[in-house]
Structure formats: structure tokens, C-alpha cells
Write a structure and sequence with these properties.
There is one protein chain. The protein is an alpha+beta fold. It contains seven helices and three strands. It has two domains: about 1-95, no CATH class; about 100-170, no CATH class. A three-stranded antiparallel sheet has the order 1-2-3. The relative contact order is 0.14.
Length: about 190
């Protein structure tokens, strides 16, 4: 029974990708709170084929709104089951990628091979640090090794506060949330408990 429900939900989630543009969302916080996991499903975010990043990612909050649908044979707020009409939207984390597309692989390669000359920092948009690394030969090799680790672990990113350009299922790192909250992003929800 559970396998059959899973297969139905999986099939519906794949079929909703084509219907996402025509979806009319009814944001209903009461309905969202009354449904339990398994009684609704949310569509996967739409991925841009050029930048390999999630489309419509909010730069300020780092989230994207995805439509959520009631599972078959579940009515919500008096709405009967309808596979093309979402009943609420849910925020999912995403990484905003700028049009410049700072390539993660290129940044790591520049840091490894030319980091002593500061080329990695020039590429990421930090010209002052790049010039200091150039004049001191990578802060006497210690700064070169430290910068390589910081760029490899994605602690240092592009100067415009966007994400790296990399394949969607590539090596990019995301924050691990503790108790469902991120201490660096303020949560703003219109639903109150």
C-alpha cells in the first residue's frame, strides 16, 4: 500500500513539472498546518539548463517558492483533489547564481596553480587581496595554502555574494540546518502558529 502511494506520488510529481507554469496557487496556511507529511507533495524546483541553478531563487532570502499539491483522495479546505491546482507554496533553500557565473572548478584550479600570484582572488572579485598575494608571493606560501582550502571548502565565494556556477548535482556545499532554522538567514513566514 505504501509502495503504491509512493509510486503514485512520484508519477504525479514528474507530471507536474510541465504544469508548473499553469498552476494557480492558493496560499492557505490553515490547510498547510492541517496536512501531515504524506498527505501532500511538493514539486521539485525548476532547474535552469544554462546556469544549472534553481530558477526564481530569491537573492535576499536564499529560498525559492515551490507549489505543493494534495495527495490523491485528500481534500484540503474544501478543495477536492486536483493534480493541477496547488493548495499552498513552500520555501526551499537555493543558491543564487549571478549572470557572471563564477565557475567553482575554475576557482579551485586557479587557487591551486596560480594562487601564489593572487589570480584566484582577482577572479573572485577581491583585487586588493589579490594584489597583496601577488606582492608577497601568496603571503609567503601560507596564505596560498589557506586560500586554497577556503575556496575548496567554499568558505570564500564570489565578492558579489552569489553562489558558484557548478552542475546542479555537483560538488557545491549547502548549510546544514539545526532544528530547521538557519542562524544566518532571518525567517519570515506569514503563517503563525
Amino acid at each position: 500500500m505504501k509502495l503504491a502511494l509512493f509510486l503514485v506520488l512520484l508519477t504525479l510529481s514528474m507530471s507536474t513539472r510541465a504544469v508548473l507554469d499553469d498552476c494557480t496557487c492558493l496560499v492557505d496556511c490553515k490547510c498547510k498546518k492541517s496536512l501531515r507529511p504524506g498527505q501532500y507533495y511538493c514539486a521539485s524546483p525548476d532547474v535552469d539548463t544554462d546556469s544549472q541553478a534553481i530558477r526564481n531563487c530569491n537573492r535576499d532570502t536564499g529560498t525559492v517558492e515551490v507549489p505543493c499539491y494534495a495527495a490523491p483522495n485528500v481534500s484540503c479546505g474544501g478543495l477536492p483533489y486536483n493534480a493541477t491546482q496547488c493548495i499552498f507554496t513552500e520555501s526551499r533553500p537555493c543558491t543564487f547564481v549571478n549572470g557572471k557565473r563564477y565557475n567553482y572548478y575554475l576557482a579551485v584550479g586557479l587557487s591551486l596553480f596560480l594562487g601564489m600570484l593572487g589570480v584566484d582572488r582577482f577572479y573572485l572579485g577581491y583585487p586588493a587581496i589579490g594584489l597583496m598575494k601577488l606582492c608577497t608571493m601568496g603571503f609567503f606560501l601560507i596564505g596560498h595554502l589557506l586560500d586554497f582550502l577556503l575556496i575548496l571548502l567554499q568558505v570564500v565565494g564570489p565578492a558579489d555574494q552569489t553562489g558558484y556556477y557548478a552542475p546542479f548535482y555537483g560538488p557545491l556545499v549547502s548549510r546544514v540546518l539545526v532544528n530547521g532554522t538557519d542562524p544566518f538567514i532571518e525567517s519570515s513566514s506569514s503563517c503563525t502558529l
